[in-house]
Amino acid sequence: SDGPNYDGQRDTEFSAKWKFRSDDADSWLPAVTIKPTFIIPTGDDEKGLGDGVRQLQLPLKGFGWLILVKS
After folding, report:
1. In angstroms, what CA-CA distances link 58 with 9, 15, 16, 19, 36?
2. Other beta carbons within 10 Å of 40
3. Tell me: the pLDDT tens digits for 48-70?
4. CA separation, residue 47 to residues 6, 16, 25, 26, 53 (Å)
């Protein structure tokens, strides 16, 4: 690859997973699970070790992704 390679701490992630609804063979409703992840920009973005922004990711099983970014 081009340019220098850096070692060091990357961004820090905190997450938790909640299952609100389980699959039920007798129902048309899907299972619902959410795993919010909060990303803190602790890595040096100038060295490519992080993004430099706080992020809140809200992945929902069966519904795709919702990503909120606060710079």
Report:
1. 24, 10, 10, 13, 5
2. 13
3. 888 889 999 887 665 545 555 55
4. 6, 29, 50, 53, 14
Q: Which two tokens stand for residue 67?
A: 């990503």
Type of residue found at 69: V
Q: What is the DSSP letter of 45?
A: G
Strand (E) or helix (H) holding 65: strand 64-70
Quick one: pLDDT band at residue 40, thresholds 50, 70, 90? very high
CA-CA distance, 32 to 61, in Å (whole number)?
Answer: 6
Taking the C-alpha atoms of residue 17 and residue 3, their distance in angstroms, rounded to an integer, is 38
Give CA–CA dist 20/31, Å, rounded.
Answer: 8
